[in-house]
Amino acid sequence: RELTVELGDRSYPIYIGQGILNQITEYFDRAKLSRKSPLLIVTDEEVAPLHLERVLTLLREGGYAVTACVVPAGETSKSLAQLEGIVSAALQAGLDRSSAIVALGGGVVGDLAGFAAASFMRGVRFVQIPTTILAHDSSVGGKVAVNHPMAKNIIGAFHQPEFVLFDIELLLTLPPRQVKAGLSEVIKHGLIWDAAFTQWCDDNAAKLLALDPEALSYALYIGCQVKAIVVSQDERENDLRAILNLGHTIGHALEAVAGYGELLHGEAIAIGMVGAAKLAQQFGYAEEIHEVTKGLFVKFGLPVQIPAHLDTDSIMSAMMHDKKFKEGTMVYIIPTEIGKVEIRKDVTEDQVRQIVELLKEES
Ligand code: NAD
Ligand code: ZN
């Protein structure tokens, strides 16, 4: 399957399929990447032993000069320190303005390598080879960033890749918890945009969880497509792009309070999406939205309640810290029916606090 992210002269293709990594040099050739300039692959310590050798071999057999830079796995690698490491590797490998940096990994590697590509020599070309389901989201849209100890994704840029090569065979080594968390973001793309796809996810949960190739490539295709449509209409997040944040207001706060790692991003936003559905109920929208949303996440084995030990005040102050509130109200994405959301600007702190309380597990 193939689709295009339409962004004028920065448009780029996303290739999704089983075993397509074998044609990697053809995709590089199609993007007119140069065999004369060295390539740098960025990956992490968990992905490297599983998939790096194969990618290096395929590219070298195809005549590309390529070296790799391996960073530790996990969110802490989205740092200026790791960025410096990548720049050192790029300089040692002799990268020049016609070179490309290739991200082989999940969203962490994608964001880090992408920011390296955006800033090294004021910008070199960038290729994404996602290895997580969640990366169907992070690899589309061109947002790249590293974290500062005080704030996530605060040092970043917009830098679109040349193409995204999504071989679902690379996903077969994912731990089950990462599979579920990645599917949470796929489901989100249904909930904000496409009722029929939401129903399809519900019907095909077992297949998706078992990484059935046909079901998975279809789901990733639709997920990428929804993101691509939204991003093409609003690359810089002036308005529409905000709908992608469904579940993220509470989700980000939960990640921050729980500590990254205890709750995965996909898990935190599943809880957040159930919260948004509860809020929709309070604004008078159909009760069915909440039932369907919660039912879906339960079916996918994702959490739908806030762990009892996370304190409501801390969650609320994490949202404040995120500068979500402006004069007592905040912008909030709430579902108005399955497959549709609205951007509300009148949600009050009290309303959000009430939702957080409602989401709490009985302790
Ligand atoms: P991740 O990159 O940390 O990957 C999760 C874990 O799975 C890691 O431990 C990794 O080593 C391991 N892993 C990756 N691929 C594997 C494979 N094929 N087999 C076995 N293990 C594998 O996390 P993620 O969930 O992919 O991405 C989260 C990041 O994405 C966050 O930093 C978030 O901010 C970012 N993100 C960015 C955007 C964007 O628009 N740029 C959007 C959403 C999320
Ligand atoms: Zn997200």
UniProtKB/TrEMBL annotation:
EC number(s) on file: 4.2.3.4
GO-annotated molecular function: 3-dehydroquinate synthase activity; metal ion binding; nucleotide binding
Catalytic activities: 7-phospho-2-dehydro-3-deoxy-D-arabino-heptonate = 3-dehydroquinate + phosphate
GO biological process: amino acid biosynthetic process; aromatic amino acid family biosynthetic process; chorismate biosynthetic process
Requisite cofactors: NAD(+); Co(2+); Zn(2+)
Cofactor detail note: Binds 1 divalent metal cation per subunit. Can use either Co(2+) or Zn(2+).
Binding positions (Zn(2+)): 185, 248, 265
Lineage: superkingdom: Bacteria
Gene Ontology cellular component list: cytoplasm
Signal peptide span: none
Residue ranges occupied by any 3-dehydroquinate synthase N-terminal domain in the UniProt entry: 69-180
Pathway in which this enzyme or protein is active: Metabolic intermediate biosynthesis; chorismate biosynthesis; chorismate from D-erythrose 4-phosphate and phosphoenolpyruvate: step 2/7
Gene3D superfamilies recorded: 3.40.50.1970, Dehydroquinate synthase-like - alpha domain
Record InterPro entries: Dehydroquinate_synthase, DHQ_synth_AroB, DHQ_synth_fam, DHQS/DOIS_N, DHQS_C
Domain 3-dehydroquinate synthase C-terminal stretches: 182-324
Alphabetically ordered keywords of this record: Amino-acid biosynthesis, Aromatic amino acid biosynthesis, Cobalt, Cytoplasm, Lyase, Metal-binding, NAD, Nucleotide-binding, Zinc
CDD domains: DHQS
Subcellular compartments: Cytoplasm
List of residues binding NAD(+): 107-111, 131-132, 143, 152
Enzyme class: lyase
Job of this protein: Catalyzes the conversion of 3-deoxy-D-arabino-heptulosonate 7-phosphate (DAHP) to dehydroquinate (DHQ).
NCBIfam families according to UniProt: aroB
UniProt record similarity statement: Belongs to the sugar phosphate cyclases superfamily. Dehydroquinate synthase family.
Entry protein name: 3-dehydroquinate synthase
Protein species of origin: Paenibacillus ferrarius
Gene giving rise to this polypeptide: aroB
